[in-house]
Specification:
heterodimer; A: about 80 residues; alpha+beta; about 40% strand; elongated; B: about 500 residues; four-stranded mixed beta sheet; three-stranded mixed beta sheet; 11 helices; 15 strands; globular
Chain lengths: ~80, ~500
């Protein structure tokens, strides 16, 4: 599953890491694939890696799809 | 209002776990990649309008959106009774599909050929943008064709990037192919899409299956025959263990992906075909296969960009019936970066989905991955580690960026698993390449959790079916009646 998540802080490094909020959880993920990501950006996260950046509109569409399928209970973006 | 994960207790989208099943004497009975974090979305699709399903699945899966996009649209066209697409639309879809393959495979070369990897990603992005898919989720294909025509300027921007991209892809292949890799002793068949001549075609209309001994099991089956080709041993399961019906559940296991794509026939583009020959001579590891397919995809894109029909303004036909409007069965397939992906929708009279099956490459390759993992875990604990063995994935440039050390988790059944064993597990996972970013994680950064279970314990993996030369394996039959893959989530079994 691919989870749109908003970056709330970034820890630079050889493997840059970010804390992201997804639904009601905060998780840490690796930004190695999207080094251009900034705080506030939406990313798709899987297995601890942010795999791509999403614009806010696309993130909203993804969250709406998750809500429509009952995977989350509110499509509002975080 | 704060969002809440309804499936929080069931799905951990952030986990990657290997389950090792040990006999009482400590020997490895089986090792499996836990796919519980990859639940099948099939049941969630029931009741939705068929026309909405492709984009829903793209959004849920996210790792291979272009493959799901194209397979889903093809399934909708199949529901409409089949559509004869305009040539320009066919070419635009091929551009999207091959660009997606390049983008996916290029990530693996970031550690060893960073500039070349970025060159390939630039071409892929330019091509996807040119065909109307600038974002992560594609919008190129629509039932009956494509949404927007490519124009000459966009084509020329792509063309300008091709020579450097082809040189970059070739350099990556030249570096990767000579490196040692895992011994390929997979006993099952290789399955991939092909053209009508039996040659690999990632967006082909035919399915071809070739046995390990080279015997052709399925020559050129059209998509309409899908339900008679593959069945699932454990219908609906995250790890359904599909098999070729023609061979049977006992020995009909197969794999998909770049290795299979190269094993079912000779590539149609010259430089990649020459590299394919070298790949075959050198033993045929998956890392090499990915680089050969990347060269092939660049060559295919170059050839398409030279075709005048690409700029033909006719990009859309009206399907004979509105896709998904009535009752029926639609099947769409593509051979994505990780292998064969199949969407099957059964609709009812109002065009809503009565049952859907999305059979992913990861699900199809789980048996192969289990064999690779079992071998990695069962290897002699004193065997040389990755520092001693040339050809580790990091040497092959088959990992993502960065590098860090492994942990050393202890298992409850014997001594701690050595760091080198975790590296072996990572290599096994990279070889089969499940559709998770952990597959291309930096060496040591896959975040694997290894869970050891006593044989027969609840949740312990079931044993691998016995293979030749593997007398230790315990036979296991399907614990439910097999069903054609297209009917796994279709209790009615009918149309």
């Amino acid at each position: 599953m691919s989870v749109p998540s908003r970056i709330i802080r970034i820890t630079p490094g050889v493997l840059p890491m970010a804390d992201v909020r997804v639904a009601d959880r905060e998780i840490t993920c690796c930004l190695a694939y999207v080094p251009e990501a900034q705080v506030g950006d939406f990313v798709l996260v899987q297995n601890g890696f942010a795999i791509d950046l999403l614009d806010p509109e696309s993130a909203a569409q993804s969250l709406a799809a998750f809500a429509e399928l009952g995977v989350i209970d509110d499509p509002d973006t975080v | 209002m704060t969002q809440r994960w309804v499936l929080d207790e069931i799905v951990d989208p952030f986990g990657a776990k290997v389950v090792v099943d040990r006999a009482p004497d400590g020997t490895v009975r089986e090792a499996r990649f836990d796919l519980a974090g990859l639940p099948r979305v099939d049941p969630l699709l029931t009741g939705h309008l068929a026309a909405e399903v492709p984009s829903l699945v793209e959004r849920l899966c996210g790792v291979c959106p272009a493959a799901h996009h194209l397979a889903g649209i093809r399934a909708l066209e199949s529901l409409a009774g089949g559509v004869e697409l305009p040539v320009a639309a066919v070419l635009s879809r091929q551009l999207l599909h091959h660009a997606s393959a390049i983008s996916t495979h290029a990530v693996r070369a970031v550690t060893t050929n960073r500039d070349d990897a970025m060159t390939l990603r630039r071409l892929a992005k330019q091509v996807m943008t040119a065909v109307g898919s600038p974002g992560h989720f594609p919008a190129t294909a629509v039932p009956g064709g494509v949404a927007t025509p490519i124009d000459a300027e966009a084509r020329d921007r792509c063309r300008a990037l091709v020579p450097d991209a082809l040189a970059a892809a070739t350099r990556i292949a030249d570096r990767t192919l000579p490196l040692a890799g895992p011994v390929d002793d997979f006993p099952g068949a290789d399955v991939a899409l092909a053209d009508e001549d039996g040659r690999p075609d990632l967006l082909g209309s035919r399915l071809r299956a070739v046995a390990a001994d080279g015997r052709v099991i399925i020559d050129a089956a059209p998509v309409g025959e899908w339900d008679g080709l593959v069945a699932e041993s454990m219908p609906g399961d995250s790890a359904p263990r599909p098999y070729l019906i023609a061979v049977g559940p006992e020995h009909g296991q197969y794999r998909v992906g770049p290795v299979a794509q190269l094993r079912i026939g000779r590539l149609t583009t010259p430089r990649a075909a020459a590299l394919q020959d070298e790949w075959s001579r050198r033993g045929g590891h998956a890392a090499g296969a990915r680089t050969v397919i990347t060269v092939h995809s660049v060559e295919v894109i170059a050839a398409i960009l030279d075709r005048p029909e690409l700029l033909d303004g006719r990009i859309l036909v009206e399907p004979a019936a509105h896709s998904g409007a009535g009752a029926g069965v639609g099947i769409g397939w593509v051979d994505g970066p990780r292998g064969l992906l199949v969407h099957r929708y059964r609709t009812v009279d109002d065009g809503r989905v009565g049952a859907a099956t999305v059979l992913t490459p990861t699900a199809q390759n789980e048996y192969w991955l289990a064999l690779l993992l079992r071998r990695a875990v069962a290897a002699d604990r004193d065997a040389p580690g990755p520092d001693d063995v040339p050809g580790h994935a990091a040497d092959r440039g088959d990992t993502g960026p960065g590098e860090q050390g492994h942990g050393d988790p202890a298992g409850p059944y014997g001594p701690p698993m050595a760091a080198r064993r975790l590296v072996d597990l990572e290599d096994a996972i990279r070889e089969a390449d499940p559709c998770l970013p952990c597959s291309s994680a930096p060496a040591g950064a896959m975040g694997l959790v290894v869970e050891e279970r006593a044989s027969g314990a609840p949740g312990a993996p079931s044993a691998v079916s016995p293979r030749s030369g593997d007398p230790s394996a315990v036979p296991t039959g399907p614990d439910r009646p097999s069903a054609p893959a297209g009917q796994v989530s279709d209790p009615s079994g009918g149309q």
